[in-house]
Specification:
Elements (H helix, E strand, L loop, with lengths): L1 H7 L4 E5 L7 H5 L7 H6 L4 H4 L1 E2 L5 E4 L8 H5 L2 H13 L2 E5 L8 H6 L5 E6 L5 H13 L4 E7 L4
Parallel strand pairs: 1-3, 1-4, 5-6
Antiparallel strand pairs: 2-3
């Protein structure tokens, strides 16, 4: 939804599914799962093959692609930095989704390498102690946390 809001505001927006272990964004947007980020990390020169238009004007998707077992290593790689640099040249807004913090270190590694991080909380699911732990993990790597978004819940 955040990507669609940015796209509707006129920003050329790229949504990257960085959850290489359990990608889901492509299904929600009705796009193929590959080629995608995993393929670009293996060959950054294949950049234009992975990005797909969506049904929302100004919103594009870079799906996760064929998964990888060591996602954190990819996020720390020069190949990932090269992919991000290409994205920054072509898009006004880039949104990256990753596996939940509880699933491993991917989100923390990535948060230390991007401009801004936002926690996504699910109403009735996200526990306060887990949110506090997530915030502390992000602070430990000096991630810039802009805030949190509550999905499927009431305030």
């Amino acid at each position: 939804n955040l990507g669609a809001v940015a796209a509707h505001a006129g920003e050329k927006t790229l949504l990257i599914d960085g959850n290489l272990g359990q990608p889901q964004v492509h299904q929600r947007l009705g796009c193929p799962s590959a080629p995608g980020l995993a393929e670009l990390l293996r060959d950054p020169s294949a950049w234009s093959k992975g990005v797909q238009p969506t049904t929302v004007e100004n919103l594009y998707l870079l799906p996760a692609g064929a998964g990888s077992s060591d996602v954190s290593a990819w996020f720390e790689s020069a190949a990932f930095q090269a992919v991000l640099a290409q994205c920054q040249e072509a898009y006004e807004r880039i949104l990256l989704t990753v596996a939940p913090l509880e699933a491993g270190a991917d989100a923390v590694v990535l948060a230390s390498r991007v401009e801004t991080t936002c926690l996504l909380l699910t109403g009735g699911v996200s526990r306060l102690d887990a949110v506090v732990e997530a915030r502390e993990a992000l602070e430990a790597v000096e991630a810039r946390v802009a805030g949190a978004l509550l999905m499927n819940g009431r305030v």
